[in-house]
Amino acid sequence: xxxxxVYFLCLPSVLAAQLCKPNAAEGFKVRLSIKTALxxxxxxxxxxxxxLFQAAIAFAMSHHLDLEFNVSNVLVCDETPRVSFWxxxxxxxxxxxxxxxxxxxxxxxxxxxxxxxxxxxxxxxLEFVGVLPTLVAPVKPATPPWLxxxxxxxxxxxxxxxxxxxxxxxxxxxxxxEVAEExxxxxxxxxxxxxxxxxxxxxxxxxxxxxxxx
Amino acid sequence: MAKDARxxxxxxMQFVMACVSYAVGLGNVWRFPYLCQMHGGGGFLIPYLxxxxxxxxxxxxxxxxxxxxxxxxxxxxxxxxxxxxxGLGLASVVTSMYLCLYYNIxxxxxxxxxxxxFQSVLPWAACPVNSNRTGPIEECEKATPTQxxxxxxxxxxxxxIEKNGGIHTGQALCFLLAWVITYLFIIRGVKSTGxxxxxxxxxxYVVLLIYLIRGMTLHGALNGxxxxxxxxxxxxxxxxxWINAATQIFFSLGLGFGxxxxxxSYNQYHxxxxxxxxxxxxxxxxxxxxxxxxxxxxxxxxxxxNYENCLERTRILLxxxxxxxxxxxxxxxxxxMIEKLNTTFxxxxxxxxxxxEDCNLENxxxxxxxxxxxxxxxxxxxxxxxxxxxxxxxxxxxxxxxLGMGSMLGNITAITTPLQDFKFLSRISNEALNGFVCxxxxxxxxxxxxxxGNYWFTMFNDYGATFSLLxxxxxxxxxxxxxxxxxxxxxxxxxxLGHRPNWFWKIMWxxxxxxxxxxxxxxxxxxxxxxxxxxxxxxxxxxxxLYFYSSCLRWGFSFCCLYYSAS
Lengths: 214, 567
Known about the structure:
CATH topology of chain B: Amino acid/polyamine transporter I
Number of helices of chain A: 6
Helix content of chain B: over 70%
Oligomer: heterodimer
Strand order of the largest sheet of chain A: 2-3-1-4
Mean pLDDT of chain A: 82
Distance between the termini of chain B: 35 Å
Structural class of chain B: mainly alpha
Number of domains of chain A: 2
Shape of chain B: globular
Number of helices of chain B: 25
Strand content of chain A: 5-15%
Mean pLDDT of chain B: 87
Number of domains of chain B: 1
Radius of gyration of chain A: 46 Å
CATH superfamily of chain B: Amino acid/polyamine transporter I
Largest interface: A-B, 35 and 35 residues
Low-confidence stretches of chain B: 551-567
Largest sheet of chain A: 4 strands, antiparallel
Low-confidence stretches of chain A: none
């Protein structure tokens, strides 16, 4: 009788030891880099931190499969000084049966953010070996920002060119008008001056040809 | 209304600024540091400065004298010297045309990078995420984010020169902008160019100074500068060092394009171009040296960062494989730990040997890069690691733009000035003629914005102008010394400056410079004949590396030969 009691008492831990082992088929290896992430504020990995991890995984499984998982359903083994270990998840209904690898992966991916935050780590420092991270979708603005800057610059340059061309044309027109007026004014101004001085302007000596013809 | 009086620079300072802006270009930033590194660091300065004295300044002086005396662009000036030499001027114009076609694409790339710097995270800082959001895009992961950004997002490069692909719209827009701005700068000839060059000549120095201060304070910068300045005197025994020094001086000063003749033709007749020639040449060389200090500080920083990243990756690999506690290995004792692990767990370490990288600072420093690879990949990689990277990025690409635009101004002026000298074209206004040249170059240059455009650019850059420039300047110097006659040339200079040129100049023009040029020319011819089919580097999307490709260059090459023989 006592033997049987001892047998049944030891069974869960023996089962646990058999269910959770390195390179288990349904298990995942986890690696934590606490000192890299937190530096001076790094906490020591001990039984309580492990409990927190188990609780987080239990939460992720419950959230994903909508079943009630307990901390005792998450088995952890093969801890190393690196702070890496293997874990497996047992089904809440039948503790000797393991939950499939794909379900665990999906659950972890879904709640990755929450698990990271609970342990004060991130995707790089809390590594689930084999689970691909879900990266943030890139923010795509409606107009790429470079196009906006381009538009502004080419608008200013275009305006500059138009301004310069227009001012050249305007200047040319003004110069042509001035020259035409100057040529007319020459004769008229002289005639006016002589009339003012009460003289008679002798047009036979007007300045049509500056040089005498040879 | 005929244009009877030739336009002039508003002051001699504008002319000097224009020459500085033209001569100081991208080559000073991306070619000289490479040569310095390849040919023994500080020791390279000896052949460089010697060639400046023997070849650079005399030829510069010569071109300025011709331009100022004849007061015509290159075609008119050489025709005036001897009616049979009009072809020389024409060759200069055609070479300038070649350059104008492809040079503005670099400005287009600078604009692209400049506009993309106005983002909270620089696009070349990290790899973009792939379609199912599980990780970065494969091509980007195999290469580096900066390489991916340049080859895939900027160029969208095709695997070889035969595969044209379509026009990259973003590139085409930036190319259009580059030409529109060029037109704005030259719209009124020297009146507008003269004002612009104040800015394009001085702004790069401001940025270089800021970068020098920033660069020197970067972590690991001194490694790079020390590496550069440690002279390796044995390189001086290598003839390639001297050839490269001569070539660099020659191309850096921009001789033979006709730009210097064009600029000098707008001078007052009695402008003292002698001291201007010396000053501009010295400024050009000084800028090369200054820029290489900055570049090597940046190299040192980048090499140190890469080295430390390599050490970090090795450390993580060791920690994960051997399940050791995190603080047992730190960056400083990575190598000691490898030794220790070799003695305690040799088989396990042997298993890792193909994943373990060889981290070596010397190797990182000795990867010398030149050309667009340096300007757009190496520098952007260094910039993304600096704090406030957007600011540094904007400053840097704006500086590249100023350097490139300044050189473009000279090259475009080398085309428009001789054209304006022709009687039948003088009826068309300045603005219309300049606009026509710009539009023509824009349309012809659109080929460089296609997906294979980078390969065409490389072909033009490496093989387009080298030969013809050497030949042009050689004939120039021989013409002036022997056909026109040194005595007549002396008298012209005396007429302009008031004193005859020193005996030093006469020896250079008559003897040393032509000999140097003939040597260079022969060297290039021999190299071409021995080199076989010319090759170019193509980007392979799957291997994610550059590999040599040598097919279609042949027909492009024969085209080049045809035009050389025609001019």
